[in-house]
Design a protein that fits this description.
Elements (H helix, E strand, L loop, with lengths): L2 E9 L10 E12 L3 E8 L2 E8 L5 E8 L2 H8 L7 E10 L2 E9 L6 E6 L13 E4 L8 H4 L15
Antiparallel strand pairs: 1-5, 1-8, 1-9, 2-3, 2-6, 3-4, 4-5, 6-7, 7-8
Length: about 160
């Protein structure tokens, strides 16, 4: 069964920008987003997909992704509850891994989160100097939650890890 093993971090500095090898603009929305699972539609350039992911504030979750035509994805995005998640994903190699740094726009502008996907749960990975506090266990940093409670609406205490 397909699994996503992912850790989320805040950033200490913008030093990662100089190491970015490519960027990709993404728009995504949620058709359903409950505690047990979420159903997401994403468009990233010429690629579009429906994604089903199990819920929970854990690094390892079930994940299924199915490519669909971009036109159909755009129709489905119209069915999603606003705001849509708009972000630029920066790909940054470090220590044999590829970090994905999401710089959010729109209702979540100002938020930047680094993510790292692993092959197995106990896999060791080096932390770049620009990586800060891990927020994998904090619900508010999950995209499905950002669609319901965007960064622009966070209190000062919510903005502190």
């Amino acid at each position: 069964m397909p699994r996503e093993i992912e850790h989320k971090f805040l950033l200490k500095s913008a030093a990662w920008r100089a190491e970015t090898t490519r960027v990709e603009r993404m728009t995504q929305g949620y058709i359903a987003g409950g505690e047990r699972a979420s159903v997401r539609v994403r468009v990233a350039g010429e690629y579009a997909a429906i994604n089903i992911k199990s819920g929970g504030l854990v690094a390892s979750r079930l994940e299924y992704e199915y490519p669909i035509p971009v036109e159909q994805a755009n129709e489905l995005l119209d069915l999603c509850v606003p705001p849509l998640i708009e972000k630029t994903r920066h790909f940054v190699p470090f220590g044999g891994f590829e970090w994905e740094i999401d710089e959010f726009h729109g209702a979540n502008a100002g938020l930047i989160v680094a993510e790292l996907e692993l092959d197995h749960e106990d896999q060791h990975f080096p932390l770049p100097a620009w990586v800060g506090t891990e927020v994998t266990h904090l619900e508010r940093y999950y995209n499905v939650r950002l669609a319901k409670h965007p960064y622009r609406d966070w209190t000062e205490s919510e903005r502190e890890p």
